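Before surveying the methods themselves, let us examine one representative protein, pairing a chain with its fold in token form.
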Amino acid sequence: MSDFWKSYDITALEYGEGYQCYPLYGKIHRIELALSLLFIVGVALWYKRSGAKLRRKILVGVTGLLLLDEAALLLGMALTGQWNWSYLPLHLCSINVFVCLYNTLFDQNWCKEELYALCIPGAALALLCPSWLDVPSWWTLINLHSISIHALLVLYPVLLVVGGYRPSVRRVPQVLAFLFGSALPIYFLNKPLCTNFYFLNNPYGNVITTAFTNLLGEKYYILGFLPAIAAALALMYLPWVAAARRK
């Protein structure tokens, strides 16, 4: 099998546990981050200067790319005989693909709020601290998929804000209800499937959850999500609160 198709499991067998295809913030990672930023800013500027009909087409196009991106990974793993339960789209970012789809179809404020408050910081953090580096090289389906889909997930809610949507602190309870309401069943689903969706089953393979483990221990690392979520929400809403007070 070509290295391009190899999954985490095959890489671990061939290269050993702990292998990473490139270092965090090394040359390749910096190039990927720069290209992602240029893509997001470029499409956002295009969207801002477009009329209503073209904006709609751009939003539909981004949604279509998200669905195709997710489908490409699932098909790639299935057709090469590497699919397992861990490839179900049940990580928060994968679930947000379908939140984007729902919003594109039905234009719901709760979707926009959740995507702004959780999807932007979550997908941006995934790009900054990737957990998918344990593949043979940067030129693999998993790495290319992970970079592109997280860039698209940052882009979609950015377009909503550029297009005039204004986040509201009053909707934060809805955001938290969505987050914890989805995390609870997934926590219990992780056990029988031996998966790690939302990184709730173990802290390994992710820089952030590893840091929580170093601070709180493996038994209580999940508690680290609470101040992290609070900090993310504060970061996302303080500019809007400050702007409202100035007015």
The mean pLDDT is 96.
